[in-house]
Amino acid sequence: MSGAAPTAARPRGPRFAASALLAWALPCLACIPTGETEAEPGPEPAAEPARAKQGAPTPPTTVPVELGAALGGTLDGHAPATGRYTATQRLSQAKFITYEHTVGGSRTISMIAVLDADGRAGLCAATQERSRTSKSRFITESGEHEVDEDGRWYRQGFAGTWAPDPDGPGFVLVDLRYAPEVCDRLEADQALPPAEDPSETSAEAERLRCTLLAANTKLPAPALACQVRSGALAPFAVGLGRSDRAGAAWVYRQDPSSRAPEPRPEDFEPWIFLGVDGALEVISEDHRDGVSLRFETQRALRGDALRDPSPRE
């Protein structure tokens, strides 16, 4: 029978055996434990919601405050913080009743108000008041030129409490009662007296509704603005609103040279202004040419601004 003879098998030597052993061992080296284990991949962690920075102050609620053209229209206001607020008010009026008869008056008021962190509030106003009436000899019974001048200095203190206005974001309510000792403490730069329990006094509270106004073209610096309803605090205020008497001092709201009635309350609301970092100077003039109101800045008042300026014996 014919056919190709089978090829004899080639013997395998030591070199082949070593190569085969190495090829078998390499894949297993990764299986040898090294003391460290590789963590299996888990699910992606959920993103944490953004958190407010610890200790970051909450931005104050800003509200529009409409004060009329004398203050440039609408200003931004927000609730005031604790602190000391001061102002000097220079209020004046000079009018011709006739060409032969003139009347006038002026008030210079130094004011310091404090809002304490524990809810106590205090205010002291020292007023230098002057009045003047002049009549020519043509209308007097004596036939002589007559001038009548008068002046006095006095101060009034008030103490009470303050708290956020529950019905008006951006405002606080300040309830004050007559307390003359407050002026002594503020003059000496001392702390306010303890708040009096309203149930233990018959004195009626005077309420202020206050906001902190941002500066604008009429107001050169931030100011504490307090709306006054009536009562003992109104003489420290200027009237604002839609009336043509807006800007006049509350005590000079009537024009003695005309027969026009007093401004309507809804058109002429009394407001008190005090400076925040420094004193605010409030200058209201009601003279022959009409009413003007302007504000200037000055250094913060110290307690001695509440002192009687007359020479001491």
Automatic annotation (TrEMBL):
Q: What are the protein's UniProt keywords?
A: Signal
Superkingdom, natural source? Bacteria
Question: Is Signal there in the keyword field?
Answer: yes
Residues in the signal sequence: 1-30
Disordered: annotated span: 36-62
Name it.
Lipoprotein
Q: Which organism is it from?
A: Plesiocystis pacifica SIR-1
